[in-house]
Amino acid sequence: MISQELNDSLTRVGPGSDAGQVLRHYWQPAALSDELMSGRPVVPVKLLGEELVLFRDTEGKLGLIGRHCPHRGADLCYGRLEDNGLRCPFHGWHFNRDGQCVEQPGEPEGSKMHEQIKAPSYPVVERNGIVWAYMGPGEPPEFPAFDCFRAPDTHVFAFKGLWECNWLQAMEVGIDPAHASFLHRFLQDEDPADSYGKQFRDKAANTEIPMTKLLRDYPRPDIEVEDTDYGLKLTALRHMEDGRTHVRVTNQIFPEAICIPMSREMTITQWHVPVDDETCYWYSMFTSYTAPVDKVKMREQRLKEHRLPDYAPLKNARNNYGYDPDEQARETYTGMGLDINVHDQWAVESMGRIQDRTQEHLGKSDVGIIRNRRKLRAAIAAVKAGKPEELPMRNGTDVSRITGPVSNDAIAEDGDWNAATLTSDEQRRAECPWDARV
Ligand code: FES
Ligand SMILES: [Fe+2]
């Protein structure tokens, strides 16, 4: 349990808020590149409680500026995309991609007033299918050399989905290795051959055991948590009857991402990005270490479960997440279908828009959550003390040397689980068609 005051400090994200100030020191996913593929590449973006508009101008360059026109507040998402910027349809004020007003066609000839008018604007860059924004003070940081950024575009597929809850509880489900044995339990095993693009449906590491069976049979993992340059490394150990140990390594990337194995072929690096205090998007980068990602298939699978343009899931609180008590009795632990994203969505949304952590009771299996909150508190304190140079990955560490992170499932024949996971990671990297060496 934590106090209401601390819960507010850890969760709220608007300008000037505690966690919001920390998040603003890191690149934030603002949109999928896919969203700018239409004939008129202009999309509304709400990020960290701020209303913005993202556009690709006539030179092909990106701009991210305040959504409301600095004149009298009209919505620039309806702006005319012309001359390297957006022109407000109300009185024709024109803004370039830095938010500078460059023309006020209704003001007196020769007026210099526009020189004083600037909409908020933030730097943006595009990386492997995602447009990233930096909304903090000073210079934006370099991108770390994570696999999802190093892999060529052909080997990364990006997608997103809307969750109707605060970002922190959304992320906390990703640093909770114990829940997979329950929330994502399938009472019968599917054919692992049908597992492409899905999580927990492959065989476990180099065994013939379906992942679903392993998670079901061994529900009490030992969880080890280590501090790293990028955040936390979590190792979940499931000690099997035959003396072998299943080792699953996942990661928290400070402040709001996770990196987890999806299958033997791919990992998922997933950001939980605040739209505002009560809504967030997950942005996933599916990274392949073997063949190019089948983006058409991956997109089709996910578009069947989401509506456009806001990427809201079709199963949600309004239709009880498709809950079927017969299915819950016979097939799945939740009764909400086979898509594990829906399970996670139910888990985090059903807590309430902002989980009331004054009423929670954390157990030993919540060690990742406890350690992460401690890191976030330290970061909040550092920013408040005017010492942003103490933040993870902003503290002078050469982020171009922060690689990986290692995310995999492995089987340790003996007790040396660390060697098992590292050997399996080295093998994957050695065989990778792009340069994944670390
Ligand atoms: S409100 Fe935009 S130009 Fe007047
Ligand atoms: Fe999950």
Query: Strand content of the residues, in percent?
Result: 25-35%
Distance between the termini: 40 Å
Anisotropy-based shape: globular
Oligomer: single chain
Number of domains: 2
Q: List how many beta strands DSSP finds.
A: 22
Q: Helix content range of the residues, please?
A: 10-25%
Rg, rounded, reads 23 Å
Q: Which consecutive residue ranges, at least 5 long each, have pLDDT under 50?
A: none
Overall pLDDT metric: 95
Description:
GO terms for molecular function: dioxygenase activity. Pfam families: LigXa_C, Rieske. The protein is built from 10 helices and 22 strands. With 438 residues, it is an alpha+beta fold. It has 2 domains: 27-133, 3-layer Sandwich (Rieske Iron-sulfur Protein); 145-431, no CATH class. Strands 12, 13, 14, 15, 16, 17, 18 and 22 form an 8-stranded antiparallel beta sheet that branches. Strands 5-6-7-8 form a 4-stranded antiparallel beta sheet, with no helix packed on it. Strand 19 and strand 20 form a beta hairpin. The mean pLDDT is 95. FE2/S2 (inorganic) cluster is lined by residues 69, 71-72, 74, 88, 90-91, 93.
